[in-house]
C-alpha cells in the first residue's frame, strides 16, 4: 500500500509572525504621524481662536459704540480675554467680563502649545467703539515642541491675519 499525503490549508506559525511584525511596524508609523498631526492641530486651533476672539472684541466695540479691552498673557500658561468695562487680567478668574459673562481662553485646552511672544503693545489694548480701530498694533506668536509657529498679527487699522515663519502649511 502506498501512503497518501494530505495537503492542509492554512498559515504556518512563521507566516503569521511575519504578518504581525509588518502590521506592528505600520501601526508604529501611523501613531507617530497621528501624534504630530494632533500637535499641529492644537497650534492651529489656538492661533485661530485668538484671531476669532480679536474679531469678536472688535465687533463688540462697534456694536456697543464703546471701547472693548483685550488682555493677552504669554508663556506656557497663556491666556487671553476681553472686557467691556475696562482693562482686565485674563489670568484672574472673573476679571474679563462682557455682559457679566466671563470671556477668556486659556492654555488648558491646548496642550503642548506655548504663547511664546506677545508684543508689549498687545498685552493690554482696546478697540475703539466708533470705528473698531485697535489702540496698538503688533503680533502674538504661538509655538509647539515640533518647532512650528503661527503668529496672529493686528495692523493699525484692525486687520487681523495669521502668518508663519516655520513653513506651517496654509499660512
Chart the SSEs and their pairings.
Elements: H1 13-64, E1 68-73, E2 79-83, E3 97-98, E4 101-102, E5 104-106, E6 114-118, H2 120-123, E7 124-127, E8 138-143, E9 149-154, E10 160-163
Antiparallel strand pairs: 1-2, 1-7, 2-5, 3-4, 6-8, 8-9, 9-10
Spans where pLDDT lies below 50 across 5 or more residues: none
Strand content: 25-35%
Mean pLDDT: 90
What order do the helices and strands follow? HEEEEEEHEEEE
| Percent of residues in helices | 25-40%
Quaternary state of the chains: single chain
For the sheet with most strands, the description reads: 4 strands, antiparallel
The spatial strand order of the largest sheet comes to 5-2-1-7
Which descriptor suits the 3D outline?
Answer: elongated
The number of helical runs is 2
- Report the C-alpha radius of gyration, rounded: 26 Å
The total strand number stands at 10
Structural class from helices and strands? Answer: alpha+beta
Give a structural overview:
It contains 2 helices and 10 strands, in the order αββββββαββββ. The protein has a 4-stranded antiparallel beta sheet. The protein has a 4-stranded antiparallel beta sheet with strand order 6-8-9-10. A hairpin with a 5-residue loop joins β8 and β9.
